[in-house]
Design brief:
Helix content: 10-25%
Protein name: Cysteine-rich CWC family protein
Strand order of the largest sheet: 1-2
Organism: Bradyrhizobium brasilense
Oligomer: single chain
Structural class: alpha+beta
Shape: globular
Largest sheet: 2 strands, antiparallel
Distance between the termini: 59 Å
Order of helices and strands: EEH
Number of strands: 2
Number of helices: 1
Radius of gyration: 16 Å
């Protein structure tokens, strides 16, 4: 049995994603510091089976959440 394809010692390449909100393409690094780690807010992961949002859509959603929380 060859397990070399499951070698976890190599860093994984960033995932190339399309934003579930607007369709723009961006990358997501699961093994290191991703762009979203530098954001000042944290939102729950989608529960509808969706994937990550691009930086612009994530910031827009965070602003909407903050506005709802402020009322």
């Amino acid at each position: 049995m060859d397990l070399s394809s499951n070698d976890r010692s190599k860093p994984a390449s960033p995932r190339q994603l399309a934003c579930t909100a607007c369709g723009s393409e961006f990358s997501c690094s699961l093994t290191g510091a991703c762009w979203c780690c530098d954001e000042s807010f944290r939102l729950p992961m989608p529960t509808d089976g969706g994937d990550c949002l691009c930086p612009a859509c994530l910031r827009k959603l965070a602003e909407q959440q903050a506005a709802v929380s402020a009322t």
